[in-house]
Amino acid sequence: MCPGTCLNATCGDGFVLTDVEACDDAGESDLCDVDCTAAMCGDGVLNQSAGEVCETTEQTESCEVTCLAPACGDNTLNTLAGEECDDGNLDAGDGCDASCKVELRPNLLRCGSSSRDVSAMIPNGVNLNVVVSCAPDDQTQAILITRYGSVNGPALQAYVNNGGIVLTEWRNSDDIFSLLFGAVAQGAGQGQCYDRAPIVNQFTAGDPFWQENAFNPIVDKIGCGADVSAFPGITPLAGWSPTAVSIAYRDLGQGRMWITDYDWQDLNIGQNDPLFTDTYNLMGYMITHKE
User: What is the pTM (predicted TM-score) of this model?
Assistant: First the structure.
């Protein structure tokens, strides 16, 4: 075919040959690639006029799925680029520092009695002071609420909204969830009552939790609790079965409620028994992470 100049039609001549070209801006533009296809991140053509600094179809160490370079403060978590967090700003003191490394508050609260020493849940290399209290404040990294603990609802809600982390225990998740998000009912009882995290089934395999923690099924001597699958707005992570969820989370403001509905504070498995190591590690991750 022949454009208005009566020259052979070619990409880049400034004439759109509609049956084969999506556009033709006589070169690269913010709307058109040099191959006369519409500019689009992930199309394999780097288009700097459209604001692309890199080209990819999936997140990499040097490129986001928006075809922009990873940058701390862009509100996109890129663990491949070494980010531990990204809260969309470069402010210090809000849990995520200007280099996108997690900032930890100094105290770990235990609300309610516990037969297990919760200091064993603190990851190696992390310094947290275990404080027995049910009143979290801006110095509280996380609060572990056992089934014997009682908290003030508005105070807990304010704490989580301001970046706090909550972990629950055997059959108290419905009470804590109700304080934070609205009333829910306790689910059906599950498990074997041996304390260990009930990670028989995996849910939401693409979640950052599973990117950071290998899925190693724990099927023997697992904890007992109540199915939380009916809680609205949660992201399920693990459970006793394909239909019964034991571990999940839901965010509120800048913080997170980790739903860990199993009897982790009993000592049916000893404090230093290697069988409990995986559970300590997973809970340590939750204590120090909220995304």
Answer: 0.72
